[in-house]
Design a protein that fits this description.
Helix 1 (about 10-30) runs antiparallel to helix 3. The strands form two sheets. A four-stranded antiparallel β-sheet has the order 1-2-3-4, covered by helices on one side. It is α+β, with helices and mostly antiparallel strands. It has two domains: about 1-60; about 65-135, no CATH class. It contains four helices and seven strands, in the order βαααββββββα. The protein is elongated, with a radius of gyration of 20 Å.
């Protein structure tokens, strides 16, 4: 089993940046005249909210991935497994750094992307997944 940890440091930095932008937005709404403030609403309210959510959500709810080479499945901390029903296999794209679950008709759905996880863990996971993809199912890849 290979565990891929969530990169909490990256999401913490995003959250702190959003917090700083949010505080600057509040200060600017107090100091700037009302006519200018109305024009900057998107920058003082919407942008900080999106950045805060992008950093806070994964800090609270993100779960590590666990790859089981025997079953060629990925599990989240909550126990949900991939590929799910209606999907037949997992596929890793070396070009985008994303993990997909693939249907029989070729449709793909993103499960995870490299940027949300610890780089060393993701590299080890991707190498093993690519190695397993090159060996037909039912044969041992070790």
């Amino acid at each position: 089993m290979i565990t891929v940890r969530v990169n909490r440091r990256r999401f913490r930095r995003i959250f702190i940046a959003g917090l700083v932008i949010w505080v600057l937005g509040i200060v600017s709404s107090i100091l700037l005249p009302e006519s200018v403030e109305r024009d900057l609403t998107a920058l003082t309210i919407y942008l900080p909210s999106m950045v805060l959510a992008a950093g806070f959500g994964p800090l609270v709810g993100a779960q590590d991935l666990v790859y089981d080479p025997q079953t060629r499945s990925v599990f989240r901390g909550s126990g949900s497994g991939f590929p799910r029903r209606k999907f037949e296999r997992l596929e890793y794209s070396i070009y985008s750094g994303r993990l997909y679950q693939v249907r029989a008709d070729g449709r793909r759905r993103v499960i995870a992307a490299w940027w949300g996880f610890v780089p060393e863990d993701w590299r080890q996971f991707a190498d093993r997944l690519l190695q397993d993809q090159s060996v037909p199912e039912g044969q041992d890849s070790e």
